[in-house]
Amino acid sequence: MSRADAARSVTVRVPAKVNVQLAVGAARPDGFHDLANVFLAVSLYDEVTVTPADELTVTCAGPDADQVPLDRTNLVARAAETLAARSGLPAPAVHIHIAKNIPVAGGMAGGSADGAGALVACDALWGLDTPAAELLDMCAELGSDVPFSLVGGAALGTGRGEILTPVEAGAFHWVFAVADGGLSTPAVFREFDRLAQGREIPAPEASPALLAALASGDPEALAATLVNDLQPAALSLRPGLAEALAAGTDAGALAALVSGSGPTTAFLVRDAASAAKVASALEASGLCRATRTATSPAPGATLL
Ligand code: C5P
Which entry of 11, 79, 115, 158 is 20 to 30 Å from 144 by CA? Predict the structure, then answer.
């Protein structure tokens, strides 16, 4: 990279998410599921840097970098291609580097976050100033969780999760236990369908008690209302996760749940001191590969 190109680099920071409520409806004709998905952005971040180059290339660094695809299937590449095509530009010639800290294929929307980051970074690099509504539209095309990665904070996602309504959220502390290996989101939804066979599935609705607890900032109240309809499916595919959930609550977490489609497990704790205690107990248990502590809410995609 020449010094002039380096000077033209743009870096965007993007947050991970946890779903404090994930209510899942029946499979739709298009294969997706209607959701009432209460997203909360947490202070675990990836950074996406774009730099002019001869052609579109993707690199990644970080603890899980070897698990990240570097070809055109990576959402960062698809984001750059989508933005260029929609803006009437030629095929994008950028180098996209992901500094990865969010667990890969972990149910924390790390890939979606990178996609949103690449979109915002390329928009700035190319001086497009694309209106926010159009960026959100492109995010929805890239994936159901990508619009939330762009806006961050706390929001209710309906439809397949892409239709967002901001919700109020106080501050909360979290611990995340990173499991060995990932879980495929489509596979977890398929397992949800299998487990639901022969059962009437109600239309998903946001829980008023959960939204009130989220707004109050009271961790005990939020702990009593956390719910993830994908959890039985994730546990069915990875029964060992139940032990990690129990280890966290035994160590003092107020509540434990699978994050999104898993296999990362999320622990709501009272404060930073409790977060440190629960994280070290989980690490000592040998039931996870690593832990991360974080707070919520966190901002969405941010130009650095
Ligand atoms: O939207 P995204 O590409 O991230 O979704 C990945 C997969 O997860 C989908 O192909 C689908 O199998 C499943 N999914 C779903 N219902 C949703 C969101 C995702 O069934 N609301």
Answer: 11
